[in-house]
Amino acid sequence: MIFKAEILTPANTLPSAPVITRLGVYPGVTRRVFVGFPRGCCALAHMQIWHWGWQVWPWTPQTSFAWDDYTYTFEDRYPITEEPLELVIKTWNFDDTYPHTLSFAVTLDPEPPEGELDTLRETLQMLGLVREF
User: Fold this and answer.
1) pLDDT digits (tens, 9 = 90+) for 9-58
2) Phi then psi for 115, rounded to 5 degrees?
3) Which of 26, 46, 66, 71 could form an SS bridge with 36, CB 3.0 to 4.6 Å?
4) 33 and 73 in contact (C-beta within 8 Å)?
5) Per-domain residue ranges of the chain
6) Under DSSP, is residue 90 helix (H, G, I), strand (E, B) or coil?
7) Distance, C-alpha 92 to centroid of its chain
8) In whole angstroms, what is the distance from residue 27 CA to residue 83 CA?
9) Per DSSP, which regions of 13-125 are E strands?
10) How confident is the model at residue 123 (pLDDT cuts 50, 70, 90)?
11) CATH class of 2-126
């Protein structure tokens, strides 16, 4: 399943007051992530993806995706199996003149192989990124 959001981010949107977009998804495990920046962004528009109150992509805290005329695409197996079944996309834009429409998409496998969720949860717990189940 593919879930996608196009996010208009006005000029002069600060990281302290980002545009918040909630992308509802079905339960499953992510397979591929796409983060797109149109031509003209000049790395002034930024995006972070959050789940359950912490930053999921990019994994490094307090960093963000930013580029010009580029789409990040990568594989990542991240479980989204508990409510709320949504990703929170935060965008901001340092451009003082132009708004930019950023793209986000994710593919999810609805039924992961047996045991994969347990392994993923254990890994995320060891990293301190999820609550105990």
Assistant:
1) 999 999 999 999 999 999 999 999 999 999 999 999 999 999 989 899 99
2) 90, -20
3) 71
4) yes
5) 2-126
6) strand
7) 14
8) 9
9) 19-24, 28-37, 45-51, 54-57, 70-75, 79-80, 86-93, 100-109
10) confident
11) mainly beta
